[in-house]
């Protein structure tokens, strides 16, 4: 871990971020970071609670003179998305994140950084540890498993918190205050098929789509980025229609909330098409690269002949329906909001495709700030995949967060931001899935906003956080703590 990170200002925050990033903390494997937070709270002599699902709550009394202010909940999630480049050797289960400074950015070497939501966690830790920061009574809420189902927020029971105001520190533009977000649902299509023997006189190829930007499937879904699964299907569709290509296996994408950057397929064709196949595919590959030259300048599609053709393939009729269902299935923006300018209302990310050994699984994450529109998009996917004979399951549904433009804490934060920056903040709803909507189901009277420093490339190895933005954000947080309204 670079000592340079610990010397950044504000040191209290960056040191806690460095401590946190030394602890492996993948979603659904948070045992080590839960133990880390329990020890942290107990060493400070503060009331520290682990609830039945693994969320950590640390309570700190108000500083002198602030006892009459409303109790606040400072909230961030402990888990992080684990993504790495193919050529990066790294074990997320055992290693801490290797960080470095690049001009105004803190980055990680070949992996996700964990600024989402580690900067928020580190902020709260620094406040809990401080002896010179004015604040009202604090309930620090560290949730688990935000990135793969929000099960921590979903499992938090009513009655554990007494706070009247919640500050969620999990957004990624330092000039924005979020007052609403999208809900989501996982849409998973599965099917089984009887493999058949590869025909004689067949040639095997491996097709690799790589070099895509990836990114957050909510915050980046409108940017026109390439989806490796959709690009791969385009290649397979053309190869099948023109040359009778048959698929042996596909491995595309990884996480439901990350736009897939890579996909690898093994396929076969008849040897009679060998030369013309490579020529035609090179033409299609160039067309795709030309289409994406602005948003995906590093896109690569590699066609490699295999020494030995795969022994088993998907039958032609099953493949006929598969590639057409994949073409039909919606990916990207489904509908823009009619109520907020430039806000994506509904979207879908075809996140992961695995095919082989007689089994097919396609995993999608559908998001929307309108519950009925979320179901409409999910049903469009269901229809596409059921037409090929898949079973389709909806799971992990979570609600959106309905904006409250009359929020008391919103007015406080807007005034502070404007005074500090001589500019008005952008009050927005976002297309990401924040935990506020879920937390509000058991704490409906809690006044909530979300804000944070500028983070780019979350959920990808390009993730980075702005150093100057963190300083700006820290200054805002400290002033908000001084100005929490009276009870």
Automatic annotation (TrEMBL):
State the name under which the record lists this protein.
Aminoacyl-histidine dipeptidase
Classification from the root reads: Bacteria, Pseudomonadati, Bacteroidota, Flavobacteriia, Flavobacteriales
The Peptidase M20 dimerisation domain sits at 208-292
Asked if the Swiss-Prot or TrEMBL record annotates the protein with the keyword GTP-binding, the reply is no
Tell me where the transmembrane regions lie.
none
Record key words, sorted: Hydrolase
Its domain of life reads Bacteria
